[in-house]
Amino acid sequence: MSDPATLRARAEGLAEALPPLLADAEHLAQAVILGEHGRRRAGLGDEFWQYRPAHAGDEARMIDWRRSARSDAHFVREKEWQAAQSVLIWVDDSASMGFSGDKTHPTKAERARVLALAVAVLLTRGGERVGLSGTGLPPRRGPLQLLRMAEVLSGAQGTADYGAPDARGMAPHSRAVFLSDFLGDLAPVEKALTEAADRDIKGALVQVLDPAEEAFPYDGRTIFESMGGSLRHETLKAGDLRGRYLARLAERKARLADLARATGWHYSTHHTGEGAQGALLWLYRALERVR
């Protein structure tokens, strides 16, 4: 297992090439934690941003009468939005995530952890509060929080065969990231996304898979065993299972994509045989699109 300092260094290196990620805070009124970094959007704050023409529905107290006196129109004085959005990240620590089909590839768990911390680096650079779901590590800002996250993510692997996200503890209107192989029962995933949607929590699902799980390169006599050891299947003709396996995997991906669309989330698959930069860039763009 990587030590916290090494994990953080890898994550910061991965994040270095990208601009700071500013999590979306469209629903500021009910969700925000005030921060110190202006976002050049209208909202709560102390710094003047711009004047805009008054619109129907604006209250009289919002109008800047001194500025309006210099023209024939009424103007509203807007201030910068200085709200730091709370973002919770769930990283699957189940036994299934410890799989790697090639010694040259990282395990799914290693890749998910680096991606999680890299996203946290980008978020904290933008003044955001980040935390880890299901670990007792609530959203906070700053370098110390990154170190705390690295320590938690460097902990021992879980013993359950498959993991399940938990939407409890997530603030209404906040943002979240779920990283997992999503190869277990999808009912808990659907439950978590439904609960999140009920509280207007949106975010991104990243399904981390090993290339062997995508290609099913097995033939002849093969013994399949879950990483936790609770499931075992032996066959003399593994190649005969390939078509059915790939069909079921495609169905699972389609269901995850449908769940994401229905709840306002974004979904993508990442393979450990690929570089992590593309997945991080996708997360950056996905969180920007979340409204």
From TrEMBL:
Pfam family, one: DUF58
InterPro entries: DUF58
Domain DUF58: start-end pairs: 50-250
Protein name: Uncharacterized protein DUF58
